[in-house]
């Protein structure tokens, strides 16, 4: 697992899944999007996360998207792929099938609280680790946990226990709770990396020891996130903070976080990167105006302040 951990750092963009007008995965658009983010200087891509609307797609469509991205990346950057199902059985099936692909991703991502409670979670992940041919990252996201568990985030102490398992190599935390993240960061190690999923907290997370970030807005401006990470790595905190403040400024233009995917798709359609803005988010009249504001803000960044 040392090789994967050596590459598991920096900016890993959770790719959108472009659809055709009739709802199928749009291969050409997905290839363009993949190249767009790689050209922006990122370190990896995450296929079939919540930004990719995995929870709405059958595994066959998910696998098709993963295969397209792997083919297009050609090992230029890291590729991680979500395999979370609606049950233990589905997740095991997805993980096994993904691991047996002719060209599998570098790692799989599992959001266990979508189908399993914190109770005996380390034992469950131990079984997952034993059957997996792939390294696995945990995914903590309270926004997609619909079951009535006592807790909707992974208990930090349990993260520590799972971090000792051979195939469990990291966690993405999208809780937006810096106190929670700090508790999780206590369990980081050379063989277990922690990633920030909340864009407005990337710099504080890096300063606390996070290995990188998984930002959805990296689909439209990957260079902002690559710039933040590279500046931090160089020790130039002033420039890193400039990037962070630019990211926060754009994030504040979202009228509602629940429609982020639709906003990003509309932006990318206008840029000619994807062909269709179809998503599983209901139509919302606020989307075009939000994209107008984001375009204006990013135009100013690129024209005057993006360093």
Secondary structure elements and their pairing?
Elements: H1 2-7, E1 10-14, H2 27-39, E2 44-47, H3 59-73, E3 78-82, H4 88-99, E4 107-110, H5 121-131, E5 136-140, H6 156-162, E6 168-173, H7 178-185, E7 193-196, H8 202-207, E8 212-213, H9 222-233, H10 237-251, H11 260-270, H12 286-305
Parallel strand pairs: 1-2, 1-8, 2-3, 3-4, 4-5, 5-6, 6-7, 7-8
Verbal overview:
Helices cover about 45% and strands about 10% of the residues. With about 300 residues, it is α/β, with parallel strands linked by helices. The protein has a single domain, classed as Aldolase class I (TIM Barrel). An eight-stranded parallel β-barrel has the order 1-2-3-4-5-6-7-8, surrounded by five helices. β5, α6 (about 155-160) and β6 form a beta-alpha-beta unit. α2 (about 25-40) crosses α3 (about 60-75), α5 (about 120-130) runs parallel beside α6 and α9 (about 220-235) packs antiparallel against α10 (about 235-250).
Strand order of the largest sheet: 1-2-3-4-5-6-7-8
Helical residue percent band: 40-55%
Described by the principal axes of the CA atoms, the overall outline is: globular
Average predicted local confidence, pLDDT:
95
Structure keywords:
307 residues; alpha/beta; TIM Barrel; eight-stranded parallel beta barrel; 12 helices
Could you give a short description of this structure?
The chain is α/β, with parallel strands linked by helices and 307 residues long. Helices cover 44% and strands 11% of the residues. It has helices at 2-7, 27-39, 59-73, 88-99, 121-131, 156-162, 178-185, 202-207, 222-233, 237-251, 260-270, 286-305, and strands at 10-14, 44-47, 78-82, 107-110, 136-140, 168-173, 193-196, 212-213.
